[in-house]
Structure formats: structure tokens, C-alpha cells
Amino acid sequence: MAIQYPNFISQIFREKPGRFKEADGETRFFQYTVFLIALLLTTLPFFLYHLLSGNCWISVAIFSLCLSMAVGWGLLYCGKFPRLVYRVNSFLFIVFLIYLMILGSKDNSMILWMYLLPLIVFHLLGKREGAIWALLSIFGLIIFFFGPYETMASKGYSSIFVIRFLITLCILSIATFSYEKFREQYKTHLEEQNLQLAREIREREHVQRSLVDRELRYKAIYFQAIEGILLIDNFGKIVECNPQILSMLGYEEKDLLGENVSTFIHPEDYSAVPLQLDKLHAGETILLERRVQTVSGVYLLCEENGKKLRDNLIILLYRDITERKVAEMALERANKVLDRLAHIDGLTHVANRRQFDKVLDAEWNRMHREQKMLGLILVDVDFFKQFNDLYGHQAGDDCLLAIATELSSVIHRPGDLVARYGGEEFGIVLPYTDYQGCIKIGQMMNNKIEGLQIPHERSSASSVVTVSLGIAALRPDNTNSWTDLVGLADKALYRAKEEGRNRMC
């Protein structure tokens, strides 16, 4: 805690700062200065009185003491020998007081100057050293007054006066010691408080610098972020927006501030806003896609990321993903086309052989799990090579397309599949269908194809295009596989051809 000194003392201190090496050097220098001024003011009349009265020894003693104190002040001001100055001047002051006490045998009031002893030694030398000097002085006074060798000086004081004097001096010494002790404790307490306060100030300054740095970083992120940012309150009211959201949507700042964020949301997305606000109030983070209206009325597809910052503030980040979504949809359509091309026969528009094998394997495993029948029909166009040779490949392609269309028109269940099995062969996968069910479906397919009435002059089976059908049905178990089912259908188809074609076996 800084000491407030008079202006002239402050001026003196400021002339040579940092000259006091001890912790309490400045305080003791101030006390010494006060003692010097008080000594000069009080001893000057005393000095003149004795000088004019012819008491040269007393005048010399007073002058010597004042001179020593003044020289000591100069040394202290220069920061030289502080402990020596205090000890020498304390010693000289004690000698001077003893000299006055001796003279007091003729004038008892002289001894009263001894009352200054505790004040001098404690304030100049400190609590511990001052206590030693005070105790030695009191012990010397006791010997002087009550020792075995009485002097003329000690005879001049009555016993009652001496006892009162010593008691008073002891009380003053104890009081001054207590004051010094209290002052030292109070000084230590103040120093601890000052250290604590200094630490708190440093910590506060550090925290303040950190907050300023953090605020600068946040501002840099806020204004330089590529995302559009809106700050809203708990009710969805926009309280702040960054330049990127204005550039993205085309609005001016005054158009957004104070408006509810739901105003700019597509009506189909608006119904989810209250629920999302509830999630944000609960401290959850939301990440979703929503359509946001621009100043021109066009809706941008944006990715919205929201987070609660504090009790009444929510941050919403918007990234325009319109172009990305358009590209994703185009890619999805292309993938669907590629997927279709990978699984659909380009000529007949039914499943190709690859898809046939894949579906047959999947259905076989499903029927195995459910212990249901799986039916299979293999269809072969009779004398198709001769048809091609006679009518040409284009007519052959048209014939295959027409047959595939009629075969597809017969089946309607989601699990059923018509596929082009080979050049002029087709395969029909029929889950949950036994042999009799396959016969019924095969008959309908045969009738459909005959109903096309496609002329075929080189067919020995009929005058129009006909087909042969091989039918098989199995219940999958651990002893067979779907290749067994294909083998059975293939053998049935072979028998149909051997028996004259245009039939089912």
C-alpha cells in the first residue's frame, strides 16, 4: 500500500527512485525525516537558551546530535549505509538522553527527555533491534539508580520519582513495541493483500486479453466465414446477420433484422421449425436441409446447422447446396440409367441374364428360409433361326420384343420376373408357385404368343410363331440348389422340343 507523503517529501522521493534496498526503507526514511525536523524545531530554542546561559557542553551535545542526524539524513537520501546511520544516531541520541538525565539531578525535568528513547529506537531500528536497545537502556537505568555505587547524579532523584519514571518508560516501551509489532503485522497483511491483488489484476488482465483475442477471432470468423450466419433469439427473431448471408440471399441488413427466420423458409419446410427450435432450446445441435427464399423469390436449397450459444441466443449457419444437390440428382438419375442398363436387356426391355441369375439366387434363398415352392419356366421361340433367315434380323428383333411384351403382361406379382435367358430364350421366375401354378401361367403365355399371329412360313409346328415351354418347381432345401431347378426346366424344355415343339413339358 503506497504511503501518502507531503508534497515536498514526494518531490524528494521522486528525485532518486529505487534507492531504498530494504522493504520498509522508504517508510523509515520518512520517519527519520520527521524526527529530524521535530528535533531541529524542538532543540533550537533549547540550544540557544543554553548557549546564551553559558552551558557550553549541553550546547555542544545538542549541536553534535543535530549535526549527526542531518549528516545521516544526507546519507540515507543517497542510499548509503542505512543500518549504520540508524544505529549510530540511535546510540548518540541515547547518550544525549543519558547526559540530560545526569544533568537532571539538578533539574528533574531533564530526565523526561528519556521518554523519547522507545520512540527513537523502535521506529529507527525496528521491532527486534529496538527491543534490545530499549531493554539494555532500561537495565542500565536500573543499575544507575539502584546499583551498589551511587553517584552524585543518581542521588539527585527521589526513589518515588525514579520508580514512577521507570514504570512510565517501561509502559512507553511496551506500547511502542506493540505498535511496531502491529505495524509490522499490518504491513505484512497489506503486502499479502497487495500481492493477492496484483495476482488478481494480472489474472484479470490475462482474462481480459484472452476475451479480446477471442472476440477478435470470433469476429474474423463471423465476417469472413464462407457460410451465411444468422443470430436469432428464442422466438426465432433475427438479431444479427453476417455479410455472407446477405450476399447469398440478396437482402439488405434492414430487411432481415427484426424478422422471424420462418418468414424466409419454404412453406413445406415451415411445419418443422417449431420442433427444431425446441431442440435448440434444449441445447441440441441440428443439421438439416431446408429451402430459403432469396430477395427475388427463388428458393435456395441450403444446409442449416444450428446451435444454442446462450440462454437467449441461437446461431444458424447456412451453406448453399443448390448446385451440389442438382449435381447429386443428375448423378442419381445417371446411376439409375446405368443400373437399368446393367440389368435390362436393351432389345426386349426385360431383365437380362445377369439380373435373372441374381434374382433367381435371391428368391431361392428366400423360399429356402420360408420353405415355399419356387417355380421356373424356360421359353424358347420355335425355329427362330429360320425366321431370321426368311424375314430378316429386324423382323426377328421385332418378334422377340413382341414376345417379351406378351410374357410380361401375364405376370403381375412384385416377385415375378421375366428375363431374356439367351438369344431366343426367356426365363420366368415365379416365387410361391408350384408345378400346377406354373402350368396355368405357361398356358396363358402360350395363348398370348399364339394370339400375336406372327407369320412363320418355315415353321413345321405352325404357320405362325410359336414357343416351347419347359416347366419345373422345387421346394429349396439343403440337398439342392437353384441350378438344380434350372436343370429340371431345361430338361423339360428339351422334351417339349423333342415331342414336336409348340407345347409345354
Radius of gyration: 59 Å
- Could you tell me the strand content as a percent range? 5-15%
- Based on CA inertia axes, which overall geometry fits? rod-shaped
Oligomer: single chain
**Domain tally:** 3
Structure summary, number of beta strands: 9
Which secondary-structure class do the elements indicate?
alpha+beta
Average pLDDT for all residues: 84
Estimated helix fraction: 55-70%
Secondary-structure element pattern, one letter each: HHHHHHHHEEHHHHEEEHHEHHEEHEH
Q: Please mark out the parts with pLDDT under 50 across 5 or more consecutive residues, or reply none.
A: 1-5
Question: What is the rounded distance between the termini?
Answer: 115 Å
Description:
By secondary structure, the protein is α+β, with helices and mostly antiparallel strands. It folds into 3 domains: 7-196, no CATH class; 228-324, PAS domain (Beta-Lactamase, 2-Layer Sandwich); 344-498, 2-Layer Sandwich (Alpha-Beta Plaits), CATH 3.30.70.270. The chain has helices at residues 7-15, 25-53, 56-77, 82-103, 116-125, 127-146, 152-155, 159-224, 243-249, 253-256, 267-270, 273-281, 322-343, 353-370, 384-391, 393-410, 435-452, 482-498, and strands at residues 228-232, 238-241, 286-293, 299-310, 313-320, 374-381, 417-420, 425-431, 467-474. A 5-stranded antiparallel sheet has the order 2-1-5-4-3, sandwiched between helices. It has a 4-stranded antiparallel sheet with strand order 7-8-6-9, sandwiched between helices. Helix 2 packs antiparallel against helix 3 (56-77) and helix 16 crosses helix 17. The protein is rod-shaped and about 175 Å long. The protein starts with 6 loop residues before the first helix and ends in a 7-residue tail after the last helix.
